[in-house]
Amino acid sequence: xxxxxxxxxxxxxxxxxxxxxxxxxxxxxxxxxxxxxxxxxxxxxxxxxxxxxxxxxxxxxxxxxxxxxxxxxxxxxxxxxxxxxxxxxxxxxxxxxxxxxxxxxxxxxxxxxxxxxxxxxxxxxxxxxxxxxxxxxxxxxxxxxxxxxxxxxxxxxxxxxxxxxxxxxxxxxxxxxxxxxxxxxxxxxxxxxxxxxxxxxxxxxxxxxxxxxxxxxxxxxxxxxxxxxxxxxxxxxxxxxxxxxxxxxxxxxxxxxxxxxxxxxxxxxxxxxxxxxx
Length: 278
Known about the structure:
Strand content: 5-15%
Number of helices: 9
Structural class: alpha+beta
Order of helices and strands: HHHHHHHHHEEEEEEE
Number of strands: 7
Distance between the termini: 50 Å
Helix content: 40-55%
Mean pLDDT: 84
């Protein structure tokens, strides 16, 4: 029996290590690009990722928000992706008055760190600046509560927690099988049921966070104002107008057009170049 326990612990340890390797980085990895000695000042393109990150943060502290946003954008163009990067980038855009870009960056940051209260607060402040006041369709309270609970942690955290519950369930099941006393066997039985239920819930939350992280149907309006059409044609009837920063859901695509839906259920067609996917 000890061999089975050792094997189980080794398998769970390997799974945890593999999942940690897939977790989005919270800090920027430094590249090996060396700055040039020919010029008096290093250009942003010649700086390492860490040096460019420091330069962007310094510019933000000095109220040079345009410079900071440009450097954050350059970092993202190099492949850097973290909640910190998108959060700082969103702050710089908001200070510049670029509300649509700020909301887009905050929402990308929130996907990587759904439980971060600062990101949610700043997103709410930015969305309060938008012109469209859209009343969402009421939702069943249980669905809202479950989604709020799921958003307290990211995909990787829920996955690791589910593995912990699985290990706990396995331990409780072994107690049920091997314990000599009836009270311990009962504890093992009910412990297996409880841990199994928690494992299923955590796994469902992890799957939900993963789907949301990979979702390509959410987008933000990036132009000051755009008319939503009744069909994918510039000459089609205008149904309503959306403004910069409004979040929409893409339900269909046709060449350079997207059919979008807003929170109150209204639908229409909009040019794809007017929005940017989160």
